[in-house]
Every structure is written in structure tokens, then in C-alpha cells.
Design goal:
By secondary structure, the protein is an alpha+beta fold. It has 3 helices and 2 strands, in the order E-E-H-H-H. It is globular, with a radius of gyration of 18 Å.
Length: 80
């Protein structure tokens, strides 16, 4: 869904701002990072940096989620 908004840019001019799915595309990485923040992982900040790198490199949200799941599952296995 594409939404177009008119944004005022000075007294006599306006700019059309297209808000595509940018709002929705940010949600998956934020959701994953919230889940990560709740875990007790050693070197958690490095893993967060890795996930942010994957996001900036335009990996698909499902790929990033799979990376998170792999680490989460491996962390649980090592605790058993």
C-alpha cells in the first residue's frame, strides 16, 4: 500500500512525500532486536551489530529472523 502525503516546505511550496512500506519494513528488525534484548547472551551487542548489518545490507526480514532463531536455539541447547 502506497500513501502520498503533502508536506509543507515553506510558505508557497509543498513537497509530495511518498510513504511506501517504509514503516512496515522497519518493524521486523525492531521486533527482532526487542526479542534479542530480552535474552541473556554473551557478547549480545556483537550479535545485535551483526543483525543490524544484515538489515543495512538489505537482507530479507525472514533471513534476519532465521539468523536470530539460529542463535536463540543454539544458546538454549548449550544451556541444557
Amino acid at each position: 500500500m502506497t500513501q502520498t502525503n503533502v508536506v509543507e516546505n515553506g510558505p508557497d511550496s509543498s513537497i509530495l512525500e511518498t510513504t511506501q512500506h517504509n514503516h512496515r519494513t522497519r518493524v521486523p528488525i525492531n521486533r527482532i532486536l526487542e526479542r534479542l534484548s530480552q535474552l541473556e547472551l554473551p557478547e549480545k551487542e556483537h550479535f545485535e551489530s551483526y543483525l543490524r548489518y544484515k538489515w543495512r545490507a538489505n537482507h530479507k526480514p525472514r533471513t534476519i529472523d532465521s539468523s536470530f532463531t539460529s542463535i536463540h536455539v543454539n544458546e538454549n541447547e548449550t544451556l541444557l
